[in-house]
Every structure is written in structure tokens, then in C-alpha cells.
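Risk register update: the risk of archive-format incompatibility is retired. Evidence:
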Amino acid sequence: MKIGFESQKGETGILLLHGLSGTPLEVQPLGNYLADKGISTLGPWLAGHDTTPKDLAKTRWQDWAQSAREAYELLRQRCSKVFVGGLSMGADLALHLAAHFPVAGVVSMAAPVHIADFRFNGIAFFRFLQWRTSNLTGGILDPQSPPHKTYPYVATKSLYELKKLMDHLREDLPYVTAPALVVQGRRDSMVPPPNGDLVYRSLGSPVKHLLYLDRSDHVIPMDLDREILFEKAFKFIRSNGTKVE
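Archived output:
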């Protein structure tokens, strides 16, 4: 497992997972904010990333989940209380972890669980053709933000694996019982905004919060409402039995 960023601060930690074809830089702004508040952080590279799109096309969603689990286990060795969070596909993986392993809470940002697009839902028929989609850059409305770095393209097979993860996650969500903060940008150009409400309603968590950010596109931790996200995430961690600043 390759680590993108980490901080060892205290007994409370949060695992932050990046999206499909992305990098840990997507979630590092949130990690930096929480580290400054005394929270340990870990942002790993997921399987098939930080190499080439062809390598990504060789991985399955279970490989991405295994990367997330390895990082989770590492953080558990360092911290007595572990939160999990992620952006986009990383949010799906964080929710998947929360359904199967003990976590203190989960922060889901722009998690895709249902995309009503016939091209995406029919992708199983095209996964062996090795088609390429355009890259997944963009997703940020803040003109002052650093560029969103991703692979130059994503293979059709990788999108098919994402769809399989989404299908599996819909079954997982009722089994997520840890406290949850669900965050969604209202101007998300990649994941339809109603996904935020769908995740929220499907969770089995007795303690859950839904936060829509009016000025944000997809890459929430780098966009215009990021300060709101940072403050809400810190408050969420602090309010769930965690003694931090």
C-alpha cells in the first residue's frame, strides 16, 4: 500500500479515500484541516492508481476495497477510534468499510449509488471492447483551486467495476449503523445530487446528517464550500465521543 499523505496526531484518526482515477490530493485539504485540529489522518493510493490507466483497468472493485481495508487496519493500529471518509468512489468504499468493520463514524462526500444513464447502466455490454472515456478532470467551480488531477482517460472496464461497486453498496447501506455525515454538492456535474438523499435514506445509522453544499461541484474538499465541509466534518467527529481540540 502506497500512502499519499498521513499525520500521526492523536488517538482519533480518519481514513480518507480518493475517487476513481484520482489522487489523494482530492481529499488532502480536509485531511490537513483535521490534522491541524489534532486528528490523525491517512490518505492511501488505491489499487491501480498512481501508475497508468491500463493498470487501473486490470483491477476490480474488490482490489480497491482491499486497499481501503489495509489502510483501515494500519490506522487501527495507531488510533483507538477510527473514522472513515471518502470522495466519490472513495465514499462508496468508506461506506462499504463501515458496513463490515467497526468504525466510529463515516463521512461520505458525493457518493455515487444510482446513475440513471442508459450508457452507464448498459456498460456491462461494452466492458471487453477496451473503449476509453474522457478523463474525469473538472468537478471544481472555484477558479482559485488547484487543478483536479486524474488519469488522462478511464477504460470502460474500470467504469464497469465502479457500477458493480455501486450495485453492491446499495445492499450494504442498511448495514451501516455508525454515525454518518452525508455531504453532496448541489452543482455536482458527475454524481447527480439526489444521490445524497438516497444515501442518507438508505443508511441504517440512527445518528446521521445530510449536508448539501449550494456552491460545490463534485470535488467538494477543493471547491467553494470547502470551509463549511471542514467545519462540519470536525464538529461531526468531535460530537461522536471524541476528545479533540
